[in-house]
Amino acid sequence: LESGDKIPADIKLLQSNELRVDESLLTGESLEVKKEVHNQDLNMVFAGTVVTKGRAMGKVVAIALKSQIGKIATLLNEASKGEAPLEVRTKKLSVSIAKVIIMVIAVIFFIGFFKDMPFKELIFLSVALIVSAIPEGLPISITIALSRASYAMSKKGVIVRKLSAIESLGSCTLIASDKTGTLTKNKLSVDRFVEYDALKKQPNDHIIKIASLLCNEIKYEHSENGLSFIGDQVDIALARHIIDLDEEYLLNAKEYKKVDDIPYESQNRYSAVMVHKDEIQYEFVKGSPETILEFCNLTEQDKEAILKQVNEYAANGFRNIALGYKEEKINDHTHPNITLKNFSYLGFMAIIDPIREES
Fold first, then answer.
1. Which of residues 327 and 183 earns the better pLDDT score?
2. Mean per-residue pLDDT for 254-258?
3. Contact of 18 with 341, CB cutoff 8 Å
4. Rounded CA gap, 208 and 286, in Å?
5. What gap in Å lies between CA 43 and CA 10, rounded to an integer?
6. pTM of the model
7. What is the second-level CATH architecture of the domain 189-352?
8. CA gap 243, 15 in Å, rounded
9. Is 260 a catalytic residue?
């Protein structure tokens, strides 16, 4: 398995190198999951999910209906076979009516027998009673009523799979719903870039945009539907945000020659890249604000103020990714590798899984 692969079956991992998987199809959560061979809870990947980063090798343990996605489909199919309360009550009513009719017919035959009524006349009377007593129009009336309710609900954005479920829904006082992919879009996006106003020299927008694209591990693919991205959801959110603002930056980023990089690892909580352009060496770093601040030339007072700003956004549901950079002219004393110190703080991207318009 490698980045971009859609996993075809449930697989137990035998080897793994920084493998991360988008399991939103199964769990509804947009954040990727890091897989580990020696962790029993994390050494399985499942059919239908997508590899966003890393490589792995494993053994297929389940396919088709025996896979997790297949079991979910089976459970959904079985769940849909249950009877709604309205169907149960309608059946009970039909049985009760049938019992009453049988009792009445029995009484009529008993009385007719003692009054010497012709048997043929008793049969006609019984058939007439059955026809008049059974409510043939009841199923049609119920279907029409439920169909009208379904139509009214569709105008408010509610899709009804089974008409009989409307009666149960009408009795609901509270609906508990999963957030991701239901109330939200299940697609991370950048809401805003937050700078620290107290810094005397603010970086220009060009540096921020280039840092977001270069300190990024996603792959781009051109298709009939336009540009598509493969990789980490946070990286995709950053790249999509910059390209949506100005697609030219995708071409500008290719003008920089990569010299060194440090891939993202969960224990380090940052990634970094070194590039050259026009005799200038740039270094960009991206990661958790707490980590990036330690690499930047800031006073303790500034760090505390920035972390307070970060925590305020985190409390409102944002995921915050900080950026830093430094540059110097290339000469004989230029360091050939990334050094994690003396960075200038750029700010942080506030990322969120936005709420659906219809929610």
1. 327
2. 87
3. no
4. 11
5. 11
6. 0.61
7. 3-Layer(aba) Sandwich (3.40)
8. 35
9. no
Q: What are the distances in angstroms from CA 189 to CA 177, 318, 338, 351?
A: 22, 10, 29, 6
Write down the pLDDT at residue 358: 66
Print the SS3 string covering the chain: CECCCECCCEEEEEEEEEEEEECHHHHCCCCCEECCCCCCCCCEECCCCEEEEEEEEEEEEECHHHCHHHHHHHHHHHHCCCCCHHHHHHHHHHHHHHHHHHHHHHHHHHHHHHCCCCHHHHHHHHHHHHHHHCCCCHHHHHHHHHHHHHHHHHCCCCCCCCCCHHHHHHCCCCCCCCHHHHHECCCCEEEEEECCCCCCCCCCHHHHHHHHHHCCCCEEEEECCEEEEECCHHHHHHHHHHHHHCCHHHHHHCCCEEEEEEEEECCCCEEEEEEEECCEEEEEEEECHHHHHHHECCCHHHHHHHHHHHHHHHHCCCEEEEEEEEEEECCCCCCCCCCCCCEEEEEEEEEECCECCCC
pLDDT digits (tens, 9 = 90+) for 82-107: 666 777 787 888 888 888 888 888 88
Active-site annotation holder among 178, 205, 244, 246: 178
Give the Cα separation of 75 and 165 in Å (integer): 18
User: Is there a contact between 281 and 244 (Cβ–Cβ < 8 Å)?
Assistant: no
Q: How confident is the model at residue 10 (pLDDT cuts 50, 70, 90)?
A: very high
Percent of the chain residues past pLDDT 70, beyond the cut = 92
Q: Which residue has the tokens 């962790």?
A: 39
Residues 6+ away with beta carbon under 8 Å from 328: 280, 281, 334
How does residue 284 score in pLDDT terms, banded at 50, 70 and 90? very high
